[in-house]
Design a protein that fits this description.
With 333 residues, the protein is mostly beta strands. It has a single domain (8-324), classed as TolB, C-terminal domain (Neuraminidase), CATH 2.120.10. It has helices spanning 8-20, 307-312; strands spanning 23-24, 33-34, 36-40, 49-54, 60-64, 68-72, 78-83, 91-97, 103-108, 118-122, 129-134, 144-146, 152-156, 161-165, 171-176, 196-201, 207-212, 217-224, 227-228, 232-236, 243-248, 254-258, 263-267, 273-278, 285-290, 299-304, 319-324. Strands 16, 17, 18, 19 and 20 form a five-stranded antiparallel beta sheet that branches. The chain has a four-stranded antiparallel beta sheet with strand order 3-27-26-25, with no helix packed on it. The longest helix is centred in the first third of the chain and has 13 residues, at 8-20. It is globular. The termini are far apart.
Length: 333
């Protein structure tokens, strides 16, 4: 548990400045991209939001490191849907809604002596949680991307690979490639090397895109007839070092939460990288998801994970944020 001793007036001043300076102009834009704080979270009780997702009905869900699954409510508050019973040393990472309408979350740990690697499944209506599958305890399963038949791919940045998990929970290694591995000689985070992490489909669902944290690399993986093809580098850039969650809009533009640089970047179809949004409100942004509700499709939701502030001993500001986007997200229904 985190402990902080803060003067109340100083904290109020810091928060006030953050709200006033909650937007800044990206390098390529003519006007600022407004960053809005929707939910402020408490790091003292493990409320660090690692990932965020939306479903076809307009719901917005996010995962907390402490195992809680939260739903974002229309009034800007959040409610706890369920709590995954994390084993000792375990943390919750990715979150996605499957074609069955159930919420899937990944759990991990930083030690093989405290195994927690796996996928859990939660019914959002009843809050009933069950473990769906277990994975290699030396890994760190993170993000997910679903196929139409209910099977899905899971990234593992520690092991540098993609799992495929079928509708029965059976896991196999779908792709292990040098392009997906972390770089222990040039890590983005001090704790461990991190390889493939964020994963998302394009609008046609003919390609998977993944981000590789340490290298700042985005890789495209062709997908035909339930098989993955040869991975291809789209871009590798210092501007993307520390890349975490990603999402694609309908035009094929990739939105990337660049965790260690406190910004949202975009990558166009030619591989050109731009800074889309920077803000004092960003504190280790780790997840990005497009709104799906009527009137919400030109909104992207972002998790401020605050993990780097926690690791460095700085004052963390975990939160759920939103930014406007010009094109709706890829329709994967």
């Amino acid at each position: 548990m985190l402990k902080f001793a803060l003067d109340t007036s100083s904290l109020s001043w810091v928060m006030g400045v953050a709200l006033l300076l909650g937007f800044s102009a990206p390098a390529h834009a003519k006007s600022p991209v407004t960053v809005t704080q929707l939910v402020s979270l408490d790091p003292n009780v493990g409320e660090l939001p690692e990932s965020i997702t939306t479903d076809g009905d307009g719901h917005v869900y996010f995962s907390l490191f402490n195992g809680q699954i939260r739903a974002l409510l229309p009034d800007g508050s959040s409610s706890t849907i369920a709590t995954v019973p994390l084993p000792t040393g375990g943390v919750m990472t990715g979150i996605k809604v499957g074609p069955d309408g159930l919420i899937y979350t990944t759990t991990s740990s930083f030690s093989v002596d405290q195994p927690a690697a796996g996928v859990w499944r939660t019914d959002p209506d009843t809050g009933i949680v069950e473990q769906f599958t277990t994975l290699d305890p030396s890994g760190f399963p993170n993000d997910m991307a679903f196929e139409d038949d209910g099977s899905f791919f899971v990234t593992d940045p520690f092991l540098g690979l993609l799992y495929h998990i079928d509708a029965n929970g059976t896991a196999t290694v779908a792709l292990a490639d040098a392009l997906l591995r972390g770089n222990p000689g040039d890590q983005a985070f001090p704790t461990h090397e991190f390889g493939v992490d964020g994963i998302a489909w394009d609008h046609s669902k003919q390609n998977l895109y993944v981000g590789v944290i340490d290298s700042g690399r985005i890789v495209r993986i062709p997908y035909r007839c339930h098989h993955l093809g040869q991975p291809q580098v789209v871009v590798e850039s210092p501007q993307l070092k520390g890349i975490d969650g990603i999402a694609l809009d309908r035009s094929g533009t990739i939105y990337a939460a660049v965790n260690t640089q406190n910004l949202i970047a975009t990558v166009d179809q030619r591989g050109h990288v731009s800074v889309y949004a920077q803000s004092s409100l960003f504190d280790s942004p780790s997840g990005v998801a497009f709104g799906t509700a009527h009137g919400d499709k030109k909104t992207a939701y972002v998790t401020s994970f605050a993990i780097n502030s926690v690791l460095s001993g700085a004052l963390p500001h975990p939160a759920i944020l939103s930014i406007p986007v010009p094109v709706p997200g890829a329709d994967l229904d």
